[in-house]
Specification:
18 helices; 60% helix; 0% strand
Length: 336
């Protein structure tokens, strides 16, 4: 999903913005483009995580999915800011002619009787004035040399928090999402871990809430509740894998590690970068292995994935760089 978001920001949205910056576009088409973006991200119509959360930057719990309307607003607001700050662009004379009078309280030079003004305001500048006024009313910010990015971030992050951070105030989510998007997490595991942190993995408890299944019982051990802690920590079908992971973690931490919900659910791992790297590799592969539930083959699948990580590092890096990272991959190799 992170890669899809990068594709949207790099290739798709730029084609749309070229037209949107020239003239106002109907809200119908903006909603249509936005809906298509999320359909591309999820690959389906159902969206388990709120859109306002996915608009947030990576380290705030989102996927940096482009908010088309907010991006358009930010460019329109920046356009007005450039005009107020006396830009040297040639277009400023036309802009002052159209909207100089409404902006004279922000720049006193626009109130001169020597400058001609128009009673008619084109639709494009009506939208610019509308968004600029709304922005100043809701988000006070200095207009001196403000960037488009700063305006955009203030629009999408204003009074917006991810649901998981609201429900779990005791967790350091800045560290959680920093770990999630680090290079220790394999891209094939990152989507699973991202959904797990936000609490939207498809367990029977989650599916029952949306009336997709009739029973909340565990599919494998027939326990009363198939929720996330049960599936990853309590179910008897994952006990062998859990013991294997705990054994490796105990070897690496000298017996001071406990596989708690804080670690497996939120990847809230601290410590020096080498130890953290190894822990994140093991925990993310453990989570991803449990998700693709093949009870008779969990341990073999898990160990194979870890060995593949070591072999891929050996083939991907030259000898000098692999030797430099040997304290990381070597820990995994020795433990296995």
């Amino acid at each position: 999903m992170k890669g899809k978001s990068s594709v949207l920001n790099t290739f798709a949205i730029s084609k749309i913005f070229y037209y949107l910056f020239c003239q106002p576009v109907s809200s119908h088409y903006i909603k249509f483009f936005q809906k298509s973006c999320f359909k591309f991200i999820w690959g389906k119509i159902f969206e388990p995580i709120a859109r306002k959360t996915l608009f947030l930057p990576f380290l705030s719990g989102g996927l940096n999915v482009p908010n088309i309307l907010s991006k358009v607003k930010s460019f329109y607001i920046k356009h007005i800011c450039c005009l107020i700050n006396n830009t040297d662009a040639i277009w400023k004379y036309f802009a002052i002619y159209w909207i100089g009078l409404p902006l004279r309280k922000y720049n006193s030079s626009f109130a001169s009787n020597l400058i001609p003004y128009s009673d008619y305001v084109p639709p494009f500048y009506k939208m610019c004035l509308k968004y600029f006024t709304m922005f100043l009313d809701t988000t006070p910010i200095s207009l001196d040399a403000v960037s488009v990015k700063a305006v955009y971030l203030s629009l999408i992050t204003h009074d917006v928090l991810s649901k998981c951070s609201i429900k779990n105030p005791h967790i350091n989510f800045k560290n959680v999402f920093s770990n999630l998007f680090s290079n220790a997490i394999d891209p094939s595991c990152r989507n699973t871990c991202f959904k797990l942190i936000h609490g939207v993995l498809y367990t029977n408890v989650f599916l029952k809430k949306f009336k997709i299944v009739k029973s909340e019982k565990c599919t494998f051990c027939n326990s009363d509740w198939e929720h996330l802690p049960h599936l990853f920590l309590e179910c008897c079908f994952v006990s062998t894998l859990r013991k294997t992971v705990l054994y490796i973690l105990h070897l690496l931490s000298n017996g001071n590690f406990k596989l708690s919900q804080k670690f497996f659910h939120f990847l809230d791992v601290n410590g020096n970068c080498d130890v953290k790297y190894v822990y994140l590799v093991l925990l993310s592969e453990y989570i991803n292995t449990v998700l693709y539930f093949i009870p008779t083959d969990l341990v073999h699948r898990f160990l194979t994935k870890i060995k593949c990580r070591i072999v891929l590092d050996l083939n991907r890096l030259d000898f000098v760089r692999f030797k430099k990272n040997a304290h990381r991959t070597g820990r995994l190799f020795l433990a296995i």
